[in-house]
C-alpha cells in the first residue's frame, strides 16, 4: 500500500470516527462548527471529506472527544475503549 493510499485510509477512518463520536456525544454539525470557529457548511464539507481539516482543527477535535488522532484513525471502538 502506498503512502497516499495509507493516508487516504487514515483520513477515511478519522472521518468515520469523527462522525460517530459527534453523534454519540449528541453534537450537531452546527455545534461542531461553532467549536471549530467555522461555518456549518465548511464543517459539513470537511466531515464529508470534500475538504480537509487543518492541523489546528484536528487538535481541537481530539480535545473535544479526548481521543488522540492516532487512536481515531484506528476506529471508533478504540476511542470508546479509552473512555
Automatic annotation (TrEMBL):
Organism domain of life: Bacteria
Domain HTH cro/C1-type, chain residue ranges per copy: 18-72
PROSITE patterns: HTH_CROC1 (PS50943)
CDD domains: HTH_XRE (cd00093)
Gene3D superfamilies for this protein: lambda repressor-like DNA-binding domains (1.10.260.40)
GO MF terms held by the record: DNA binding
Official protein name in the record: Helix-turn-helix
